[in-house]
Amino acid sequence: MKIEKFVIRYRWLIIGLSILLVIGSVLPMLKMEVNPDLATYMPASMPATVDQKKVDEIFGEREPLLIIFEAEDVLNQSTLTRIKKLNQEFKRQKEFDQVISLFEIKNIRGEDGMMLVDPVVKRIPKTDEKREELRESIRGNSMAYGLVVSEDFRYTLMLIDVVAVNQDKEVMDLLFSLLNKYPGDEVVRISGQLYLRTEANDKISRDFIILLPIGILLMLLFLWISFREIKGLILPFSVVAISILVSMGLIPLLGWELSIIGVLIPIMMIAIANNYGVHFIAKYQELKSLRMDLSMQDIVIETTRYLIRPIILTGLTTMVGIIGLVAHILIPAKQMGVVVSVGIGLALILSLTLIPAWMSMMKKGKLKHSVTQSGSLSFLDQLLIRIGKANTLHPRRVILFFIAFVIISGIGLTRFRVASDFNNIMPKNHPFNEAIDIAGEHFGGTKSITVSFQGDIKDPIVLKEIDRYGMELEATPGVGNVTSLASIIKIMSKALNEPGEEGYDGIPDTRAAIAQYIELYTMSGDPEDFERFVDFSYENAIMNIQYQAANLDEIDLILDKIDKLVEDDSHVSGIAGYSLIEKELCEAIAVGQAYSLLFAFFAIMLLMMLIFRSFSAGLIGALPLLFSITCTFGLMGWLGIELDIVTALLSSISIGLGVDYTIHMFWRLRTEIRQGNSYKDAILVSLRTIGRGISINAFAVILGFSVLFFSGFPLIRSFAFLIIISLLLCLISSLMLIPAIVVIRKPKFFSK
């Protein structure tokens, strides 16, 4: 039994199974969890992650939070009082481990041959004279000046280590409650991955609450404007709704978590899943206009019979394009490739079963659109007719226009860049990014690299090498500060020796002298002050390099400098840091982009060859995709939009969607040419018929993706802009470039 008659016969069974599918998809969604932690988006075997875990095993896993206070003068009494109270509160809370602030930084000085270790701020100054004394004291303290207090005394920071076992939201709620408990006039900005995760988690929830309803409303509005029939709304919408529920339900069902990328999934289903329903309604209206004698069931059977092959083929090619994300290195991208492909496959099946089953029980309805009456042609119909005339009368001009456009856009590829971090997850004016900017300008940067050492750390040879590395790195462009046990030992040497003496501002020559320095410090200071740089047994130490970099090239320059310095040092046990995890993640995104792009492109080209049994069909069919991808990435270069965690998904999604327009155009051209029409006549007819369906479909998809402009994530908004441009280019190519090439070359696979 043919599918079109099977659907009519078992329509109630199809509707019933669809309802059960909806119920079965809702239950797993109740257990869905959100994961905004970018570090977990990469495989655990990533080198930077492995090296960081080694450091964490020795020194403990730290989750630093950076709080920056801004005031006209941070040494004023009210600001210092507030910071002191917050400092005490943070130290009392079990959620926080170590606190660094003006009230924790030490002033190391010598007196009568003894080393004295005092807080930088012993007491809060109440007079201008005392305040200036404190200011001069801070200027002379290399551990405070430029590290904890900015040189203009406008900013001061607190660095808090969070105990890793705590929940992000609980920690941030506690932090904000303490800040509110001790209010002040200072502007407070926060940075740190924990804060970023919390903010991202809130924005993911916000996006779902806002974007999904807006997307559905816009889709319904567009369907009504396009078809002016109730069935033109409810039938495609039913397919979209079921596809969204199944796609989202698969995430917890497979044991996965919802990522930042996951925000795209329901919007993609709104944009894509109604494709096939749109073509069904468009074909139904075409037959209703041309074959007024047909009954509703006859129209349903005829529409299903005509669309079954092109819909299956376009659905498969879209799935192949999207499944190309499985070749991506990002775990959420792989997961999205799977669930979206399943959702598209389901939408394809429902469009060929549920829609005709439901439609067969509806009335035929009044004629809303006519493809025969020229007097009632819409703007879209008139535009398609003009495009058809341009293609058939001036095909070479059309092709030259596309070539010129590719060249101009392609020049932008020379400016194409890969993101070096994920700060653009938040808006530029978000406190997270404002804190990063301030830290970069006044505190040496927020990026850090940790070089770990293993051996006898009190050995003067080891410490002198660490000191040498630090001095050379501080002279490297982009590096702000380098801190280690060696830099603290040098500060001690200044306290115990007079300027000009042999031991002043240097590392002692004997292990015993170094041990004595440390012992003298612990007599009046806190031994825990060293735990950020060396372990209890003095067998492992780290050197922390604080820097700023605007792109991957600048990070590579600093890394190359580090590698050259330590390449022959047997005591170096590893190079780690969250900025390196970010760097590897960004580089992996570029590699994953290339893999998924190549996989999707060549898979689509192969499918086109198999579908139309022609090598030239694959080549010609790939041209709109090649044109679209080249121009889109070139545009990214011109506009300075970087390749990041979201825009890296662009090529696979664009290829998967854009190929549909070419397949539908090929299919209609072949049908018309086989019926005896000339190539030019076939193009004119195809543009007025399937061209209308393609255009409505494309603008429905574009409207679906436009909802992403309301996202709270800037990189999601950039993706929305780029995917819309890419799909427009695919549409224009299918309506103009393909027909122009067909007129000139007259491919034989259309007439076989």
Strand content: 5-15%
Overall pLDDT: 85
Question: What would you report as the Rg, rounded to the nearest angstrom?
Answer: 33 Å
Biggest β-sheet, characterized? 4 strands, antiparallel
Helix fraction by DSSP (H/I, runs of at least 4)? 55-70%
Q: Unreliable runs, pLDDT <50, ≥5 residues?
A: 370-375
Euclidean distance between termini CA atoms: 28 Å
Shape: elongated
**Which class of secondary structure composition applies to the elements?**
alpha+beta
- How many strand segments? 10
What is the tally of helical segments? 25
Strand order of the largest sheet: 2-5-1-6
Describe the model.
By secondary structure, the chain is of the alpha+beta class. About 60% of the residues lie in helices and about 10% in strands. The chain is built from 25 helices and ten strands. The chain has helices spanning about 5-10, 10-30, 45-60, 75-90, 130-140, 170-180, 195-225, 230-255, 265-270, 275-290, 295-325, 330-360, 380-395, 395-410, 430-440, 460-475, 485-495, 510-525, 550-565, 580-610, 615-640, 650-675, 680-690, 690-705, 715-745, and strands at about 60-70, 95-100, 105-110, 115-120, 155-165, 185-190, 445-455, 480-485, 540-545, 570-575. A four-stranded antiparallel β-sheet has the order 2-5-1-6, sandwiched between helices. Strands 8-9-7-10 form a four-stranded antiparallel β-sheet, sandwiched between helices. A hairpin with a 2-residue loop joins strand 3 (about 105-110) and strand 4 (about 115-120). It is elongated and about 110 Å long. The two termini are about 30 Å apart.
